[in-house]
Amino acid sequence: MSYIKNKNYCDLPFCAETPYSNFYTYSDLADIPEKCNLSKDEIIKCRTVGILQSLHGRYYLSDMEAGKQSDPLVQVSVVYLKTPPQSTVMPYPVQVFGTMQWKKRPVIYAKILQVLNVKTAIRVRNALSAIASMHLSTNVPEQDCEEAEDLT
Fold first, then answer.
1. Structural domain contains residue 123
2. For position 33, what pLDDT does the model report?
3. 58-62 vs 106-115, strand pairing mode
4. Do the Cβ atoms of 64 and 51 come closer than 8 Å?
5. Which among 18, 94, 135, 144 is placed 20 to 30 Å from 25, CA to CA?
6. Which residues, including other chains, have CB under 8 Å from residue 6's CB and lie 6 or more apart?
7. Which domain of life is it from (predicted)?
8. In a domain, 48, yes or no
9. Which has the closest alpha carbon to 51: 40, 43, 60, 42?
10. CATH of the domain at 113
């Protein structure tokens, strides 16, 4: 049985009470350095999931996939948190909501830091990556592109 994807909700504007700039846009940790470098003068609200580790008194996020990269990708500033995270030897998975800015390297000023267990962190990252790639028109299968052209 064939079906038609209804993506009209993607075209709906945000209402005046909740403008787009108030939302934390999800970014994969691997994409943050490039996004931050491209918009050096802008401060962007972002949300990401990664492994938080403390190195020499500073906090860094690294990617959850061990095969990708072992070096920390993004520095995390915890100045705006009510209670700073524990400085432990063992890294742990977190979800970070904050503002992203370029300061000689990508830095996320954390507003909310949520500690997750590994299983939940992987699920959250996979779900948010899938949703973001669908709504940001990245990784669109050719079949969907052809169907969209046929409808226009």
1. yes
2. 83
3. unpaired
4. yes
5. 144
6. none
7. Eukaryota
8. yes
9. 60
10. 2.40.50.140
Residue with tokens 């009470």: 17
Q: Which helix (H) or strand (E) holds 66?
A: none
Find tokens 């190195």 and name the residue: 55
Cα torsion for 59, 61, 67, 68, to the nearest 10°?
-130
**Amino acid identity of 37?**
N
Q: Which two tokens stand for residue 111?
A: 């507003």
Select from 62, 86, 82, 78 the least CA-distant residue to 110.
78
Q: Considering the entire predicted model, what is its pTM?
A: 0.72
Q: Report the domain count for the chain.
A: 1
Instruction: Give the model confidence (pLDDT) of 90-125 as tens digits.
Output: 888 999 999 988 888 889 999 989 899 999 999 999
Helix (H) or strand (E) holding 118: helix 118-135
Angle at 23 between CA 39 and CA 37, to 5 degrees: 15
Residue 13 included in any domain: no
Residue 8 inside a domain? The answer is: no
Residue 116 domain boundaries: 22-151
